[in-house]
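Hey Z.,

So I finally got round to the 6-phosphogluconic acid thing we talked about over coffee. Here's the setup:
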Amino acid sequence: MSPTEDAHGVQVFDDAESVARAAAETFVRLSLEAVEGRGAFSVALSGGTTPRRVYELLASDEYRARVRWPKAHVFFGDERAVPPDHSDSNYRTAREALLSRVDIPAENVHRIEGLGDAAANASDYESVMRSFFGDATWPRFDLVLLGMGDDGHTASLFPETSALGEARAWVAANWVEKLGAWRITLTAPAVNAARRAVFLVTGASKAERLREVLNGARDPSRLPSQMIRPRDGLLEWYVDRAAAAKLG
Ligand code: 6PG
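And the result:
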């Protein structure tokens, strides 16, 4: 059944599977448009659990052949301070569910280093992105996939953390007190330079925060997902009925 859509570009789907399928379709469509129009497709993958089904679908017989993987460049929106084979690694999730199952050249997969000095890892990753995007002021991804935490964070832009104030860096090392850990994350201005940013939000546990982020007072330091507003691009929300339950 086709989703209902509201003025915010929020599309409400019946369930998480329908959200994942819509995201896979958007990924395929934007990848073809980018390759045809610009010769390559650049995407920043989201971490967390919600996008895993999207990655599995893209690696499936139903979708795999519809993407020109040799022309795709895969980046990450954020990473945890863990090694790439750790169960908490966003890279590992993407590798297992997608990247190891499609013919994308290894050099087109741009992993964030989670181990070691977080500030150094952040600036190294920014250098990797600058060598791909050239001397642009900001990286212009064709697609940035995002999730939203129960606290309103996105990527690793957590409430009341230093990375929220980043106005120049593309990538930031962000100390998250409540996790007692460093995270490496794209900054909001870097995400907001994208042609398309798509939030994937499912499950009843997200309903109250989603209502606040979309319909509540503007308070980005408490609700960092509100910081995502592409300057010259499209923002979409793919949510399931459970997450949309309080949107009215
Ligand atoms: C991460 C993500 C993070 C995630 C949200 C939602 O590294 O954890 O980038 O921003 O998208 O925490 O996570 P779930 O999809 O698991 O609910």
